[in-house]
């Protein structure tokens, strides 16, 4: 029996009324201030912290967006960009980015300039959602004149560094809720039928179709495999509908799809995908997998300028 999303009419795209109905149904489950901003504040002793924008979704829904930069920035050094929380519900992307800065960031002083945006979508983080408050997916809206304020703010942050960013790693998760909630919601919003898919069990990477870097991806996979398991291909030799080009690696057209990993023009780019719902992985392992991915990415980029 075909499932219908509880908002809207099957086959009819949402209007503003349905989007407002969807937004009104969302509940705040956790605190951006307590879980994210507090950790960022603690990093101020060793890193420069600044705001690069503010989201205004109502009187009690205003959020400052924070960037963490290497102290004593040196323009002669390569820039390494780390982004997390583009989808607010992907917890290890946010917590993994912060854990990396806390545990490993100081080691790169004098070797690389770090630029880290650990939680791009704080409204979504608090509500454990993929979309922002406008029912838009920030990770399909990294485009000129973006309608998603989260995406527009990050594009503005990164713009002055384009041409100097050597590596950009964007930290994500693929969860069971993609299939139970977010893909059905997307189909309903766009007035399309929901087509069931398969959630891969394990970690994988998304390379750039226009600029594939197989050795870079492989270095990250090898590092993460020491922490958690790598997602196998399905019966069609695919992961989430895309051909597996190497163990744990698929490709997307990053810029064409408006994805975050396509914003920097870096030589080395990737999107991580952790699977937090696996019975074989703990939240701590998921965070550690993100940290392993970031460190491996930076080390490879430094060794292969």
TrEMBL record:
Active-site residues, Swiss-Prot/TrEMBL: 273 (proton donor/acceptor)
InterPro entries: Peptidase_M14
CDD domains hit by this protein: M14_REP34-like
Domain Peptidase M14: 28-301
Gene3D superfamilies for this protein: Zn peptidases
SUPFAM superfamilies named among the record's database cross-references: Zn-dependent exopeptidases
Family to which the UniProt record says this protein belongs: Belongs to the peptidase M14 family.
Protein's name in the database: M14 family metallocarboxypeptidase
Species of provenance: Aquilutibacter rugosus
């Amino acid at each position: 029996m075909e499932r219908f999303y509880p908002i809207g009419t099957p086959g009819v795209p949402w209007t503003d009324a349905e989007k407002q109905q969807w937004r009104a149904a969302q509940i705040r489950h956790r605190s951006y201030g307590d879980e994210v901003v507090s950790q960022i504040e603690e990093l101020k002793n060793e890193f420069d912290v600044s705001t690069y924008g503010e989201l205004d979704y109502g009187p009690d829904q205003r959020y400052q967006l924070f960037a963490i930069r290497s102290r004593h920035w040196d323009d002669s050094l390569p820039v390494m960009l780390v982004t997390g929380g583009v989808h607010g519900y992907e917890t290890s992307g946010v917590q993994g980015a912060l854990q990396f800065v806390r545990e490993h960031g100081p080691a790169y002083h004098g070797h690389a300039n770090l630029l880290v945006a650990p939680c791009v979508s704080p409204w979504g983080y608090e509500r454990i959602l993929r979309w922002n408050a406008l029912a838009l997916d920030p990770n399909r809206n990294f485009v000129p004149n973006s309608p998603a304020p989260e995406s527009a703010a990050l594009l503005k942050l990164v713009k002055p560094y384009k041409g100097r960013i050597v590596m950009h790693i964007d930290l994500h998760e693929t969860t069971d809720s993609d299939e139970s909630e977010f893909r059905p919601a997307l189909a309903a919003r766009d007035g399309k039928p929901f087509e069931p898919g398969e959630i891969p069990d394990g970690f994988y990477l998304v390379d750039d179709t226009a600029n594939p870097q197989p050795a870079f991806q492989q270095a990250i996979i090898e590092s993460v495999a020491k922490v958690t398991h790598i997602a196998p291909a399905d019966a069609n030799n695919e992961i989430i509908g895309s051909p597996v080009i190497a163990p744990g690696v698929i490709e997307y057209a990053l810029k064409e799809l408006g994805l975050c990993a396509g914003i920097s023009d870096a030589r080395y780019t990737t999107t991580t995908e952790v699977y937090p719902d696996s019975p074989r992985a703990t939240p701590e392992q998921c965070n550690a997998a993100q940290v392993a991915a970031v460190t491996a990415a930076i080390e490879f980029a430094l060794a292969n300028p």
